[in-house]
Specification:
Elements (H helix, E strand, L loop, with lengths): L2 E7 L3 E8 L5 E8 L5 E2 L1 H14 L6 E8 L5 E3 L9 E2 L7 H10 L3 H5 L8 H11 L1 H4 L4 E3 L1 H9 L13 E2 L1 H4 L5 E2 L4 E2 L1 H8 L12 E2 L7 E2 L6 E2 L3 E2 H8 L6 E6 L3 E5 L13 E4 L5 E7 L3 H11 L3 H8 L10 E3 L16 E3 L8 H25 L6 E5 L6 H10 L4 E4 L4 H15 L9 E3 L7 H9 L3
Parallel strand pairs: 1-5, 5-14, 5-15, 9-12, 16-22, 22-23
Antiparallel strand pairs: 1-2, 2-3, 4-7, 6-8, 10-11, 13-14, 16-17, 17-19, 18-19, 20-21, 23-24
Length: about 475
């Protein structure tokens, strides 16, 4: 049996899966926690990665490995390969004003890079660094992303071997920087220079080399273990799910994402849809929402019940919750862009204001917000043939059942798994075999399509 490994270096932790390269069957796993916060010393990721590898029994019998990681972020290195300052993570919002500045300076950014910048993008964080910490910006000799830096370290580079030209990345992660064109597969130095204040061309600031799907980025230091190109987390998850053109992944975590594998990129000048690249060589248009599983957390707490009980209660009410509608903007919202919004309960009558109706309105509101994201993808030409519903909340039978009533396309709930790490493992297998693996994905639910237009119609009635 040939074994390959996949890493998921996420915001909260580092996970590793070691699988059979032929089938994707799980052999063993490991995990280690990351520090909390929106800025982190990357060395903590390196320690966690090594701890996770140790917990998984090491790599002695592994033939290839690849690293998936939290997208965006900013890791800046000096000429000696040292980290200049703690990495800013995707969820650090101090660069929101910088995003507005870059958008004003480059009105055509969506056409140039596929996306309108937001605070999570690397470009906005570099602009913040340039303005807030000019002394650190002046030291920058290379800029990379979390998965890039970990791949570099695995290959034996770092402060004791600081060859910055050996930094590598892939299209999917590069497409979230805000200065990469995933159609031409080239960096936009003009945008990068406006962000950092120094050029990757004339000033020699190093940007990672793009490694193609199936191409080796090198080997683990001191071994013959091949290293795949790696990927951003959403692209790796799509690869781990085996998603192909026509598939839309709806992920319900603390926040929500709706992303599709698409053959072409259609830039969205409004910024609603981010025009990312996928991990197979095509594209991954994506919409993010701020309010997802926390909507259910809040409602369950209000009713004094568990999540399972919330689901049972929700299914006691008819589709449409007797007219009760929850607009779930508890923490503001990104899609639509309403950062100061609050949640609102509409349609309260003596008949509708019941515990079952409130439970169902919470689930319907959560899913309608994500369905709005699917509509945004549709306006960009994305055709949805099926929904792959993932995330912890997707395992609640009420969520999957009501999803089949909210979405007008078939819904499939894959078995819970570390899909980002599995996607990275698929990249590792791809390097060995020369072809993308086609691993079977088990499902736990495929509810019968039962579209009820009334749910979306009621939700739209109160649209801002």
């Amino acid at each position: 049996m040939t074994l390959v490994a996949g890493i998921d270096s996420s915001t909260q932790s580092c996970k590793i899966v070691i699988v059979d390269a032929a089938t994707g069957a799980l052999v063993r796993t490991g995990r280690a926690s990351h520090p909390a916060g929106t800025e982190v010393d990357p060395n903590a990721w390196w320690v966690a990665l090594n701890d996770a590898i140790t917990e998984a029994g090491g790599l002695d019998d592994v033939s290839a490995i690849s690293v998936g990681g939290q997208q965006h972020g900013m890791v800046v290195l000096d000429a000696a390969g040292r980290v200049i300052r703690p990495a800013l993570l995707w969820n650090d919002t101090r660069s929101a004003a910088a995003a507005d500045t870059l958008s004003a300076e480059f009105p055509d950014l969506a056409e140039r890079t596929g996306s309108k910048p937001v605070a999570s993008f690397t470009s906005t964080k570099l602009r913040w660094l340039r303005d807030a910490e000019p002394e650190n910006a002046a030291l920058v000799a290379a800029v990379c992303l979390p998965h890039d830096w970990l791949t570099w370290r695995l290959r034996g580079f770092g402060p004791t071997n600081p060859d910055l030209t050996q930094l590598t990345t892939d299209r999917s992660d590069a497409s979230g920087t805000g200065y990469f064109n995933s159609v031409t597969n080239t960096y936009d130095d003009e945008v990068f220079t406006a962000a950092l204040g120094r050029s990757s061309v004339t000033d020699g600031v190093v940007l990672p080399r793009i490694v193609a799907p199936g191409e080796s980025a090198g080997t683990v230091a001191g071994t013959a273990i091949e290293i795949g190109c790696g990927a951003g987390d959403n692209a790796a998850a799509a690869l781990g799910l085996g998603a192909r053109a026509g598939d839309v992944v709806v992920s319900i975590g603390t926040s929500g994402t709706v992303f599709a594998v698409a053959e072409t990129q259609v830039p969205d000048a409004t910024g609603t849809v981010a025009g990312f690249a996928d991990a197979s060589g095509i594209f991954l248009p994506l919409v993010a929402t701020m309010n997802a599983a926390r909507v259910l957390d809040s409602t369950a707490a209000l009713l004094g019940i568990t999540h399972d009980e919330l689901g049972t209660l929700a299914l006691e009410a008819a589709p449409g919750a007797s007219g009760l509608v929850l607009q779930p903007y508890f923490e503001g919202e990104r899609t639509p862009n309403l950062p100061d919004a609050t949640a609102t309960l509409f349609g309260m009558t003596l008949a509708s204001t019941t515990r079952p109706s409130l439970a169902r309105a919470a689930v319907e509101g959560l899913l309608c917000g994500l369905a709005d994201g699917l509509d945004a993808l549709g306006r960009q030409g994305v055709s949805a043939e099926r929904i792959l519903l993932i995330g912890g909340a997707a395992q609640n039978p009420a969520v999957s059942t009501i999803a089949s009533q909210v979405f007008a396309v078939p819904v499939v709930v894959p078995e819970p798994a570390e899909y980002v790490a599995l996607g990275a493992a698929a990249q590792a297998a791809w390097v060995l075999d020369g072809t993308r693996p086609d691993w079977a994905i088990a499902t736990v639910a495929e509810p019968a399509s039962d579209f009820h237009p009334i749910i979306r119609e009621q939700y739209a009635r109160y649209a801002v």
